[in-house]
Each structure stands twice: as C-alpha cells, then as structure tokens.
Write a structure and sequence with these properties.
By secondary structure, the protein is an alpha/beta fold. It has six helices and five strands, in the order αβαβαβαβαβα. Helix 2 crosses helix 6 and helix 3 runs parallel beside helix 4.
Length: 131
Amino acid sequence: MREEQDEQDERLPFERDRPAKALVVIGDDRIALATVLVLQEMNLAVDISMDGDSAIAWSRRSGYDVIVCGPGGDAAIDLALRFRMSAPDATVYLLTAPEEETAALWVLGVELIAPPLDVNTLMSRFWRTAA
C-alpha cells in the first residue's frame, strides 16, 4: 500500500487521478489568454485572478498543480516567492525578463520564462515540465 502511495506521489501533476489545476495571475490580457489556452489544451482546469492577494489565498486552499504569474518586475517576483510559500507542491512559473532572474527564485524552484512570450514558447516550457 505504501509503495502504491509513493508511486502516486512521484507522478507529474498531469498524470494524477484527479484533474490537474492551474492558476494564472497575469496583468497583460494577451499573455494571460495565451497562457490559459495552452494550459487548457493540456487538460488543466484553469482559474484566473487579477489580484495577487486573492490569488495567494486561493493557492492556499485550492491545491493548484501549476501557478503562472507575471510579468511585472519586482511585484511579480515577490508574488512568485509568496506562491512558493503558500503552495509548496505547485510548479510556479514567473514570466519575466532575463535581467529579473534572481538566485532566490532558482533556490525556491520557481521556473522562469523569458520573452518573447508566444504560444509556442509557453507550450514548449509547460510540456517540458510535464515530460
């Protein structure tokens, strides 16, 4: 029984028995829409939040597998760090420019996606994590 539980815990979010869930917190409507469409194409149920504080509260109680936030400079970095603390099991992506990369994000396991942001870039990164 314990072996079976360990095997289930090691599976990727996209392989679990329950539908995988994602949270998108992106201020740019075009990027948010592209991100939502890519995640839905990967069969994830997607919630969208326009407010960082509400998104943090949702992440504490909703068990998201994937959280995507940014772009937005220092505010997005702070939000990504807060997500890492509120949802430690989720894969957190920060859509950011390369100069915003910080050691703290890498240490905490936040995935960085730098521009140019298009559907192909997003699909490639999300599938790489799922593989």
